[in-house]
Design a protein that fits this description.
alpha/beta; six-stranded mixed beta sheet; single chain
Length: 263
């Protein structure tokens, strides 16, 4: 039996709710073998990010090479890439290994409000990483930063989606969690728009939702799904993870990655 495989390239979360830890939980829950490349170590909990240590770029490259030359990956997901140098080294490695199914979560700010991307690295994210992406998964603040626009209306969301695809990404999902009303995400692939809507839950336990959504899309792609089916899988998985979430810590708790297995 061939096992689908995916790799996450992201920062760690010592609290276990986001980052590489959330990605590996998601891969496992969705039937995908997960490998990882650490880009940064964060001291983090449900309240704040208290320290960040970036991994040297040669060690990041070595991790990617080690995984892809032996285990391989049917899809790759990127998360926290905090500097231009890290973005550049990751892009070079992805290009050398010919990675096609790439999901980019443009991580900029933690749920606690702490910055995870240097402001001067946004340009590298736009010009180097987005053109390699099969899918980009920004939330509203991230889409605003990428497009340098303000998003208020449905029309604004559509224009931002068009702009991000115009930067070279093959498709984008602009997530609607920061807007009012039902949680509606907008997918655009340069040809058509498609909405994915789910109910909104009154809970603070949403730590790691962005990481989880992107890694769930990558899991779907690793399993051979077309992009829209992978997005639908991710939307359902995150929705149910929030529905069945539990409180950990004193701030934003995590969603429940193993709601199907934990009674």
């Amino acid at each position: 039996m061939k096992i689908p495989k995916a790799m996450t390239i992201a920062g760690s979360d010592s609290g276990g709710g986001a980052g590489v830890q959330a990605d590996l939980k998601t891969f496992a829950a969705l039937g995908v073998y997960g490998a990882s490349t650490l880009t940064a170590i964060t001291a983090q909990n449900t309240v704040a990010v208290t320290s960040v240590h970036e991994i040297p770029t040669d060690v990041i490259t070595a991790q990617i090479d080690a995984v892809l030359t032996d285990i391989g990956a049917n899809a790759v997901k990127t998360g926290m890439l905090s500097s231009s140098d890290i973005i550049e080294c990751v892009c070079e490695a992805l290009e050398i290994h010919g990675v096609q199914r790439l999901v980019v979560d443009p991580v900029m700010i933690a749920k606690s409000g702490d910055a995870l991307l240097r402001e001067d690295a946004i340009g590298s994210l736009r010009t180097r990483l987005l053109p390699l992406a099969m899918v980009v998964t920004p939330n509203i603040p991230e889409a605003e930063a990428l497009t340098e626009t303000t998003i208020v209306s449905d029309a604004d969301v559509r224009r931002a989606a068009e702009a991000i695809v115009g930067m070279g990404a093959r498709s984008v999902v602009v997530k609607g969690g920061h807007r009012e009303g039902p949680a509606t995400d907008l997918f655009y692939d340069g040809k058509e728009f498609k909405e994915f809507t789910a109910p909104r839950f009154d809970t603070v336990n949403t730590h790691g939702t962005g990481c989880t959504f992107a890694s769930a899309v990558a899991a779907g792609l690793a399993r051979g799904m077309v992009v829209t089916d992978a997005v639908a899988l991710a939307k359902d998985y995150v929705t149910e993870g929030i529905r069945h979430s539990f409180s950990i810590g004193q701030g934003h708790g995590p969603l429940n990655h193993f709601y199907r297995f934990w009674k």
